[in-house]
Amino acid sequence: MRRLAILLLPVALAACSARDSALAEDGRERLVGLRADDLRLCAGVPNLTATSPGGEFWTYDRTPPAAGVSAPVPVIGGSLSVAAGSTCRVTFQLVDGRVTRIGYSAESALPLSQNAACAPVVQGCLRLVDQGAVRRE
Question: Are 123 and 29 in contact, with CB atoms under 8 Å apart?
C-alpha cells in the first residue's frame, strides 16, 4: 500500500499543479478590466509599484509554503525527487485605473505547472468576479 501511495503521489501533485496553473491562466484573461480598488480588495496591497508612460504596474511576489511532501519516484537507474515548491511574481498593468494586462514570472519544480504558484494571487479576484461582487469593464 505504501508503494502505491508513493507512486501515486507525483501524479496527485502534478494534477493539483496543473489545475492551479490553468486557474492562473484563466485569471490572465478574466481579470482584464478590473478596477484598481477591486484589485486591491481581492489581491491585497502589491509588494512593488511602478509608473511609466505605459501605465501603473503592481507586482505581487508569492512563495507559497512548500506542500511538505518530497517523495522519491523510482525510475530506471535511480530515483527522481518530486517536491511541490515554487515561486511566482504577478504583475498587473493598469491604465486609467483598470487592469489591462497580467504577466507571470514563475518557477516550478513540477512539469506542466509553470504558473501554478500564481493561482493564489488571482484566485480571490476570480471568486469575486464569479459572485458578481466586482465587475470587469
Answer: no
Cβ atoms within 10 Å, residue 62:
16
How many Å is the Cα radius of gyration of the chain? 18
Residue found by looking up cell 493598469 in the block? 94
SS3 call for 79: strand
Residue 33 Ramachandran class (φ > 0 left, ψ -120 to 50 alpha, else beta): left
- Determine how many CB atoms are found less than 10 A away from the CB of residue 91: 17
Single-letter residue type at 93: Q
The amino acid that residue 104 corresponds to is Y
Per-residue model confidence (pLDDT) at position 81: 44
Residue 124 has which C-alpha cell?
A: 480571490
Q: Parse the chain into domains and list their residue ranges.
A: 2-131
What is the end-to-end Cα distance of the chain in Å, rounded?
A: 52
| Average pLDDT over all residues of the chain | 78
| Predicted TM-score (pTM) of this structure | 0.72
Q: What does the alpha-carbon distance between residue 114 and residue 17 come to, in Å, rounded to a whole number?
A: 8
